[in-house]
Design brief:
With 250 residues, the protein is an alpha/beta fold. The protein folds into two domains: 154 residues, Rossmann fold (3-Layer(aba) Sandwich), CATH 3.40.50.300; 78 residues, no CATH class. The strands form two sheets. Strands 6-7-8-3-9-10 form a six-stranded mixed β-sheet, with helices on both faces. α3 crosses α4, α3 runs parallel beside α5 and α5 runs parallel beside α6. The termini are far apart. Bound molecules: adenosine-5'-diphosphate (ADP) and magnesium ion. Magnesium ion binds next to α1.
Length: 250
């Protein structure tokens, strides 16, 4: 009954600035929710509160009914809450395959062993193949990350994060910086995620949001303005005036 992530009356202040203002939100298995809002609305801060990168000043966060508000980020990842890696954390001079191997070994507690080659675990190699196939990266498996197009690097980030086998996945602007002509590879990757995963997507690209999200939450000045289906949100006059209207002029 309590499966998933629940945020109640979450608050975050930076000095006198309220960045999370009584946020209530839940992520259940299979959810595809998008968090949208103008720059500075507090979206990234909210993501950081979920992952444990920041500690809220008030409210509660629970995972499957367990209070995780004070749980450290590394422990929260092991509990199943993960945000995508940043490109800056990829090993640029290692291949895609070698990059994906690292979080798998890490998750299995088989990090760097002396006298044991990193690629000598058949189960790990099989899992890498699955990730490569899930993210359509087979043909790039042995290419070094720095040689990839930016959109493909962002796919590798997603693959690395999924290698941790999260149950709750937070994507903070997965298509930011990706060429418009490559945006579909990000959309495809999100659509290919396991059905039972809970996904929260923070994104400016409305085409992507409307394609992948079944519910949209609009955040303004740290507070939820409204939540609804893509159809409801696109018709909401307040949202059009405040956010979508400005973007979709003409
Ligand atoms: N570490 C911090 N210290 C102080 N203010 C911060 C910090 N992080 C973010 N902020 C402020 O919080 C507000 C929300 O920022 P952010 O969460 O990055 O918004 P968004 O991701 O929606 O653009 C902004 O006004 C930003 O300046
Ligand atoms: Mg942000």
């Amino acid at each position: 009954m309590n499966a998933g992530l629940r945020v109640k009356n979450l608050q975050m202040h930076f000095g006198g600035i309220v960045v999370a203002d009584n946020i209530n939100l839940s992520l259940e298995p299979g959810d595809r929710k998008a968090l949208i809002g103008p720059n500075g609305a507090g979206k990234t801060t909210f993501a950081n509160l979920l992952t444990g990168n920041l500690t809220p000043t008030g409210g509660s966060i629970s995972l499957d009914g367990m209070d995780i508000k004070r749980m450290k980020e590394s422990k929260r990842v092991r509990a199943g809450v993960a945000k995508t890696f940043q490109i800056t954390t990829l090993f640029r001079h290692m291949s895609v395959r070698e990059n994906i191997r690292l979080p798998i070994l890490e998750r299995m507690g088989r990090g760097m062993r002396m006298f044991k080659r990193a690629d000598s675990y058949p189960d790990v190699e099989e899992e890498i193949e699955q990730m490569l196939s899930q993210f359509n990266l087979q043909s790039l498996a042995d290419v070094e990350v720095h040689e990839l197009a930016y959109g493909q690097q962002r796919l590798v980030e997603m693959a690395l994060t999924m290698a941790l086998k999260p149950r709750i996945l937070i994507l903070d602007e997965p298509s930011a910086g990706v060429a418009a002509s490559d945006a579909h590879i990000i959309t495809d990757a999100i659509e290919n995620l396991p059905d039972d995963l809970s996904v929260l997507i923070i994104e400016h690209d409305m085409k992507l949001v409307f394609k992948v999200a079944s519910r949209i939450i609009v955040l303004v000045n740290g507070a939820i303005l409204c939540e609804g289906t893509p159809g409801e949100i696109s018709k909401n006059q307040q949202v059009r005036d405040l956010y979508l209207g400005a973007r979709h002029d003409g």
